[in-house]
Amino acid sequence: MFEFPWQVIIKTDEPGAVPNPITCEASIIDKFWVITSVNCVNQTQMEKFTLRFASYKLKNPDKFEFSRKINKIVVHPNFNPLTLNSNIALLKLPSELPFGNVSAHVSAICLPAMERDIDEQANLIKIATISGWNKQKVVEELLTTNVTILKQSECVVPAKSVTQENICSRGQLSTGLACNHFNGGPLITYKMSVSLSTQLLTVALITLQRQLQHNRVINNNNAAISSSPSSANVDYIIVGGGTAGCIVAGRLTENSSVSVLLLEAGGPIPVLREMSGVIDLADEVWPYSTVRQQSASEYIFLAFAFASGTAALPYGKVLGGSHVQTLNVYTRGNRRDYDRWAGEFGARGWGYEDVLPYFMRSENNTDPKVVAANRGLHGTAGPVEVSTVPNPDPFELRWQAIVNASGWPIADYGNSEAQYGFSIPQVTQSATNWTRRSTGSAYIEDNSGRGNLRVQLFSHVTRVLFDGQRRAIGVEYRIIRGDNNNQTYQVYCRREVILSAGAINSPQLLMLSGIGPRDHLVSLGISVLADLPAVGSRMQSHASVPMDFSLVNQSEITLLRNIDNQGLTIPNLYDFYVHSSGPLRQRPVAMMYIATGVSGDRDWPDGYLVLTSGAVFTDSLLEAAVQNYRADRQTEWRQYLRQYLNNERHLYLTFLNYRPLSRGTVRLASRDPLQSPLIDPAFFSDRQDLAAMVAAMSIGFALFETPAARSLFTYSALPVPGCAFCPDRPLSRCFTYLACVAQSVTVSDWHDCATVPMGNDSGGNASALDEHLRVRGVQGLRVMDASVMPAIPNANTLAAAMMIGEKGARLLLQTD
What we know:
Blueprint: E1 3-4, E2 8-11, E3 23-29, E4 32-39, E5 47-50, E6 55-60, E7 63-66, E8 82-85, E9 88-92, E10 105-110, E11 118-119, E12 124-125, H1 135-144, E13 149-150, E14 187-191, H2 196-215, E15 236-239, H3 243-252, E16 260-263, E17 285-289, E18 312-316, H4 335-343, H5 352-362, E19 363-365, H6 368-373, E20 384-386, H7 394-405, E21 421-423, H8 439-444, E22 453-456, E23 459-466, E24 472-479, E25 488-492, E26 496-499, H9 502-512, E27 515-516, H10 518-523, E28 530-531, E29 543-551, H11 563-567, H12 570-579, E30 589-594, E31 607-613, H13 619-626, H14 634-641, E32 650-657, E33 665-667, E34 678-680, H15 687-704, H16 707-710, E35 713-715, H17 735-745, E36 747-748, E37 781-783, H18 798-815
Parallel strand pairs: 10-13, 15-16, 15-26, 16-22, 19-20, 26-37, 27-28
Antiparallel strand pairs: 1-4, 2-4, 3-4, 5-6, 6-7, 8-9, 9-14, 10-14, 11-12, 17-18, 21-30, 23-24, 24-25, 29-32, 29-35, 29-36, 30-31, 31-32, 33-34
């Protein structure tokens, strides 16, 4: 009888019985399955046992093989470990190894600097012979599988300490050229071979399975919904299953006596949205764009490089909202942002100390080091996982070293205490399989079986219904699916209507329902229910200026290059599904806060720089991009973009003005609820915003011009069309060029907010909502999403919107 010689701890969420004829002595410790021994019952016939993440095939007494790679095994330090991590399988040789034939390509063996472990003249590994095993035969079989033996001096060792969690997870071993030394012991690395047809079948089956799981939320509760006020059978109607709306619905229905109907215009989460490497899928967005941008003076223009003079605003139209299509970056903003809400704008109860518990309530931070270093600032029990990205691209780490050497410290953007500095930010992804953890999946999909929660998708709400006392009693909506577009339905509730439709659709719905600026509503023939000038009138967003760079060394970028030609391949999908690895798992993103001195300082920075991989243009993609630009400049743009034709070294360095003063508007285009509203962010309408942007660009370019940065990447050899380099000075001092670029290619960073602001009920900052998020002038109607912010925080708005959902739900429960 052959006894499996290693003891391992296999991490699994769902331990189960191991089928016969293989038997195990096993015990459960929390969520770890401890296997103490594995014995073959049938020595001659192939048998198989399967764990959640592991599968072995045992063929005969003197041979065994791995049937597939294992996702992740955590090995106890005292055990003689078998470790398989990500794309690479690692086997630490015990003193006596019953090895046999391995159905895998052995790409490298890395031995420590101990001569007794290797006979260099014979080029053989010294493995002790035990009963039933022939040392020479084992070595010959290893050598016939193309083993490369490396001395310790030839092995690549990461700068940081190697642990059993992170070893060899950067893909260094997959080339067969180098390997990592592990705890003083020799390693053999295996590169498993799976046929493309097997990968294709696996991808198809898993895609179908996972999409069916997402689709379970479609009409998850078949209980009839009311069609008249007298028969209302739900307590709350929530309009919009976006970032905040999903949280409100999930939290309210934790109380079994509270019932909720969630209406979402989009559909279920597409399986491809599980992947952080996929962010641009047109079918799940509202196809909005800004109105054509006008000059605020003869010197201020916006987007004048673009043919349309507009910027795209593709917000999420899907369960989970824009959280399902972003980079998943988790940043909260500065504590002074929220103290300003409470002080300057009169939003009592929304200061930093008030909102911190609600940031933490949604968060499950999976990095113990981050939690320990920021005690009292991170949550560890919330539904949304916030994780540290594994294995950043080499260029991110080199950029970090350059920035640190220039005086920028490492910062934790997930708290609001100190921001100035550099970060490879944490993301809202599962640390177990690296799928996106949006609020749609964490608060709705995970709770779709609740009898008091009904989710109705493809339901476009067109107006709020009121009784004679100006109390919201329900909503009117259309089913936007199939042939039902023209059919209108009404549904009613017992308690309140909650608008969580987002910073664009919430003000649109209010105005369609007669709540907003009187003059605007009257001009469209809409009866005025409540004259609230603040509705749609104080919009803020972050302007961003993307600039083109190239890495000097292509080997320093290994993650996702371009979705169209390298991302959504069968091998990449297979790696993501089966091994939680590959380019679809994460996108390379590095960030830093800049203090320009124009609108902010180190305690409250106003500039932001984002470094990420750029598009790899094919001929067709390049030509499509050229068509976005003004006709009289397309020849110049074609020449400019050809620098990045098939250029996998392409990077974007994007500058953002993170403390803008400019305020824009959202207005109705007509009384038609299906017509897109008129959206004008009015970037740079306050001249100080342009000055702050140029100052941030100047600081950034001064850093790029250092010798260390020049060895990492270079800026475009050609100026942005329509702008000119300065012949007598570096770009960091060429303010005319920087200002021209800022006004030519500025786009929105999709952080719109403050369109239905809360706060004071009088004076210059008169708001649309009180501090309990109740709409002024009516009853039974609240707003809970990014639109309620009195002013934009100096961060992306995801974490803040999550906080608003958590605090809003608590306000409702306290009212009850």
